[in-house]
């Protein structure tokens, strides 16, 4: 892929632009000063109409093809360019785009930006590459009479184009100062409770203090602004000093659950660690995206654990991120953490949450634990001091850390980051672990094999070793308990161990009280569903088994939360009720349904989703009430609870009505459309119709989906399929799309994942059913 920085090095951008949200237009003049290194220079300019170009005040020859602006006859050396252009505001949550919300019977329109990874080029001509750092100044003119608020993160330090941002619209917010004097303001749309920004302000203030104290280089800006946007493709975006979020990732209303508070805390801490990892020091090219994301994905846990130790946040890392990395990294075709990019369309595929984020975070945790926190921070401080406002590659970081380590950081990390997968260790021998079963010898330089959750590997214990650890389970550390169960679950998906062994295994944990352990039991129980045909007698027996499995726990914690519930109890109840719902325990469903009230804010927040699920499952006639509430509520958590509940029914007629929402972006916003799709697809009572909808509406899906989320469709549908018939439909639809670089990896991995699952079902089904009997 050609890099345009080899022709021109920008130093400063001054944007004088006009934005009209009603006409959906953007345009003006961009003044760029920099150094010309070739007589012909090029700028990224996607779907922009270039009307005039001046070089040092004189007219310059140019041509533009809707993707690239080429200026010919440029003189080598320093130059000041003025590029006049016109463009359109997008509606697909990338570049400069439109967002809306309802307030007091009126539609409010917002203009926001999402420039990561390579979408700044859709808003103004630029060298849209991470290495092309420059200083930015943005002046925005609005139509006469507009009273919109304009937020923009300029004048800026020297930074990459993807970190520039602006937000225009009507908001309200609150401002505080942290102990280091940084002014922090969090904004929300007018239809959101203004007090819902308080928690995000608190997390931001304390996170910046924590990073200041540990990274050795202070947050370099006097202010931080956070904005919750009604339409946002990702979870959040670390624009330097102007961080944007999906509403559900930033706002904590008074009715929020503990889970929502944890999620917001992690998201804010993640984005603010990016102010150093990514903003202050930026990867040279997208193949080193992990330099940003892997660090932010582990630092968020260190920060939140320091600020809110009562959250027990590391338990969530081990049962969430670490597990997700292991489950994804054992599929043939998976990318490595460090991944080459040869096509612009491939950039979007790099943002694999289970690999670049979760696996990378786990590898960084391994390094931190081997080095020790203090030594790690010394290396990081040197790294930031040496490379601030610059670009780096991975070896720059390893060199900085090596100085304070008693092992070869570079050798260790190159092995894990540059190649996909991880080892399964059996009696000291390493083989790459793959669901396909085709495991070959391959060595990773593991300094020490431990049974905690530090290392990115799994242990294949003999039956004797496994039973010995089960016998002293209560004496194991929590991390050792989690590894024992996670590793056993994974090896049971191959010929190393039968899936049938999981049935008596989970039964041993009927009296278990740890939510973290039950989180893995939930994973195991969910994984065993593949062996039972929907509606079969075997499935009914399995549901009875699950019902009896969770009964002792539910008896202890009850169906509703109590004032003295601790964090573990709240999580445990949530897990047990989810399994009880799957088991269709009518007695408990009826008890939960009786707690229903149409005033959702008065429902117990911690069990609200369970109550909503039970009520609609038993009485689908309430669907219209749910739909009306979904349309009218602004609370992002209640909105999501309602959406999920509407996908869990058995009533085919009601489910088909919910399906129609897939084509109603005025009700279910494009940012949430995929969630609606995949939850419906997971429901076996409507799965066939949902996939048929996808095949006949693919052009519509492409139009409304953000660029980075389109590969979710082949990826997550593959995670559901368990029959040859469904696999055949998958192949017929997705295989012709393998010439699209943005979809190729997801489709290839989807095929490999399904093939491995079908092979497992054929091999273990009889034994699993026998074990159940």
Strand order of the largest sheet: 5-4-8-2-1-11
Largest β-sheet summary:
6 strands, mixed
Structural class comes to: alpha+beta
Q: Low-confidence segments, ≥5 residues, pLDDT <50?
A: none
What's the gyration radius in Å?
A: 27 Å
Count of helical stretches = 26
Measured as a percent range, the helix fraction is 40-55%
- The separation of the N and C termini measures 58 Å
> What general outline do the C-alpha atoms trace?
globular
| Average predicted confidence as pLDDT | 96
Question: How large a portion of the residues is in β-strands, by DSSP E?
Answer: 15-25%
Number of strands: 23
Give a written overview of the molecule.
The protein has 773 residues and is α+β, with helices and mostly antiparallel strands. Helix content is 43%, strand content 18%. The strands form 7 sheets. The chain has a 6-stranded mixed beta sheet, with no helix packed on it. A 5-stranded mixed beta sheet has the order 14-15-16-18-17, with helices on one face. Helix 4 (313-328) packs parallel to helix 11 (478-491), helix 6 (353-371) packs across helix 7 (373-387) and helix 17 (608-618) runs parallel beside helix 19. The radius of gyration is 27 Å and the shape is globular.
List keywords for this structure.
single chain, 773 residues, alpha+beta, 26 helices, 18% strand
